[in-house]
Amino acid sequence: MRVGLFVTCLADVMRPSIGLSTLDLLERAGCEVIFPENQTCCGQPAYNAGDRATAQKLARKVVSEFADVDYVVIPSGSCGGMIKAHFEDLFSDLPEYKNKAQWLSARTYELTDFLVNVVNADSFNTSFQGTVTYHDSCAGLRELGIKDQPRKLLRTLPHVELKEMSGAEQCCGFGGTFSVKYGDISSRIVDLKCDDLESTEADAVVLGDLGCMLNIEGKLRRRGNHKTKVLHIAEVLTGRNGEEAE
Amino acid sequence: MEITSQDFKAVSSAKLKDEKLQKALFQAKDGFVVSRAKVVKELDNFEAIRQAASDVRDHCLAHLDEYLEAWESRAQAAGTIVHWAESYEELNAIVVKIAQDNRVKKIIKSKSMVGEETGLNEYVEGHGIEVKETDLGEYIIQQAGEHPSHIIAPATHKSKEDVSELFAKKHDRPRLEDAEKLTHEAREILRPHFLDADMGITGANFMIAETGSTVIVTNEGNGRMTTTMPRVHVAISSIEKCIPTLDDFALMMRLLPRSATGQVISNYVSMTTGPKRNEDLDGPGEFHVIILDVGRTRVLGSELREALRCIRCGACMNHCPVYQNVGGHAYGWVYPGPIGSVLTPAYNGLENAIDLPNAATLCNQCGVVCPVKIPLPDLMRKLREKQYEKNLKSKTEKWSLKVWAYVATRPKIYSMVTRVMARAGKIVGGNSGRIRKMIFAGQDWTKHRDLPTPRGRTFRDIYLNSKKINKG
Predict the structure, then answer these.
(1) Which of B81, B158, B445 is nearest to A179 (CA)?
(2) Mean pLDDT across chain B, nearest whole number?
(3) Do residues B105 and B232 both lie within one domain?
(4) ∠ CA(B265), CA(B270), CA(B274), 5° rounding?
(5) In this complex, do A182 and B464 lie within 8 Å of one another by their Cβ atoms?
(6) How many domains does chain B have?
(7) pLDDT for the residue numbered B431
(8) In the 8-state DSSP scheme, what is residue B232?
(9) Residue A233 belongs to a domain
(10) pLDDT digit string (tens) for B442-461?
(11) Based on the domain organization, do B331 and B402 belong to the same domain?
């Protein structure tokens, strides 16, 4: 099956190991991975800022770049949610694209959802071991219903123990530009998230969205916590630590 | 009520540093969220009930004119005097006129958010008529000279210690520490007012078209006494509160107390249909209902229409990570939290509440708990679109967006820019792998947290390069 990889702009620039891990996971599952080279961003920053025209422009670009695949897989609940939950609204006044958006939306999967529910992946080649706690990202959880999928994957790893934190479903306070426009509030919210995840004493907090990752990792380090690893689920499943730029 | 939403940013930052408030908010949050979750779990078809309630509210709004007329004629047939008010001043003036016509000196009042909108208490007191709030929370904040910070728990920003201090001072009695004793003291003080008040003012959670009734949903006996003891009862409400039938009301009641306080049913549900009849033992001689339409009709015809489904349970604010940390006063008007971030600009003008639709992470916690499925994040986004169209965004934000959009829509430039960013970011971060201080917009990030650095190369470069090698 032909699977389009939408790597997301943040992973592309900030943490390529997420893209590399996703690529490995898909290939290991027997997928033929297509990476449209011109991809940039799904348009969510513009959409959430109220700049509908730019959001439409970028969404049209996504729709046409992935017109020729069986599935699109995204290592992010947020960008996945943008395509699956919002493209249709974004194209409500462009009937031609609305149909294309529906077509795309039906084929688009967040990575863990794809691994669990499409290819039934249940064995992974990873050296990772330790205790982990999982942070549910807002869009993944509440727009795409990503809750059991990553936990199911983590439970297949023999040397990984999952310790749930209280408030796992609580927002980390990132919210895109919210994190800088309302920095004081955002900072308080992510502090509470750090309290919750630190109290599990897990070796790593694992999650599926780079926005939450940058926010949580940035806050942990600022608090002087250099011990708790912050890892994308794709990295855990392939044994990468996030530093890779091979 | 005067709007101060323009100060959201400064006030919210101050509220974050207010330790007493933080303690009170923390306690309130746990109570509301935990008890709601518990009673919602007990229903095996909560989602189906939510959908049904949302459909009923949409149906009401689509036929609002018909239901309001039906309600009015049945209410009048029961002897209710119905008034319509198209401005805050008009509603306030009608209340004062009724009071003056009936030689009213003292009014007892149970909770009403419409009354907060119109600034009713100040207006009535300005005409020499005494108003006593009788809901415990409302009584507390009236004594403190404040406004509600929550739509169902108006004094939720106050700790028990605050109330101890306030009561000791205002009641001129020895300071009490125990919450139950404090409640008893308020009750003792309020009792004589119930007995000698000439008029009672209540809100109305719903108006039922089928019967011409108004309903209040409360937990303290004060509402029941306000509707029955004084000579005159005035209920104030707004047009969107009208629902068709008693069955619809029963449906709403499956959701309202559960979503609001985590109760299966509230302690009191008081339904009023007309004044005292001859055979009744008690009740007011006159019953007036004043129905407000400020902003509602306009919102009904706008893309924010779904906000009018609101049944005022407060679940959206209880579950909002922003509200949970800054409290209700930061929002600067009557309705705080996510619903307030939609209603405040919708009723008062977007330019008077620029921050509110933006001060949200769009986490959609509000959307999933709303008993009538108001898509609150979508409505906030629509307001952001309006701000963008009306040029109400800051220059910095507009230009950052423009630059970003220019790059993101041009893949070649994008790939070069990101390559440079990945490389430069890594160099700046050095061995630590994080940046502790940035300039321009970035300083707002690094004021609070580090920025994990890029890893030197973009995924695109790594991927395309490896493909080239494999081919070669």
Answers:
(1) B445
(2) 96
(3) yes
(4) 155
(5) no
(6) 3
(7) 87
(8) E
(9) yes
(10) 899 999 999 999 999 999 99
(11) no
The overall pTM is greater than 0.90: yes
> How distant is the Cα of A243 from the closest Cα of chain B, in angstroms?
6
Same domain, B180 and B202: yes
Place of tokens 């009750």: B187
A62 within 8 A of A42, measured Cβ to Cβ: yes
C-alpha separations of B93 from B87, B99, B102, B110, B285 in Å: 10, 10, 14, 19, 21
Strand stretches in B184-296, DSSP E: 199-202, 206-208, 213-218, 232-238, 242-243, 268-272, 286-292
Instruction: Tell me: do B448 and B331 sit in the same domain.
Output: no
B3 and B102, same structural domain? no
Q: Is residue B47 part of a domain?
A: no
- Residue among A48, A189, A242 whose CB faces B384 most closely: A48
ipTM of this complex prediction, to 2 decimal places: 0.96
- The DSSP code for A137 is P
pLDDT at A21: 98
**A85 domain-assigned:** yes
**The domain containing residue B29 runs over which residues?**
1-42+303-393
Task: Classify residue A122: in a domain, yes or no.
Answer: no
The verdict on a CB contact (< 8 Å) between B384 and A23 is no
Contact, B154 vs B219, CB < 8 A?
no
Q: Is there a contact between A76 and A208 (Cβ–Cβ < 8 Å)?
A: yes
- From chain A residues 106-145, the ones with a CB under 8 A of any chain B CB are 138-139, 142-143
Can you tell me whether residue A63 is helix, strand or coil? helix
Q: Within this chain, do residues A141 and A230 fall inside the same structural domain, yes or no? A: yes
- CATH code for the domain in which residue A27 is found: 3.40.50
Asked if residue B307 is part of any domain, the answer here is yes
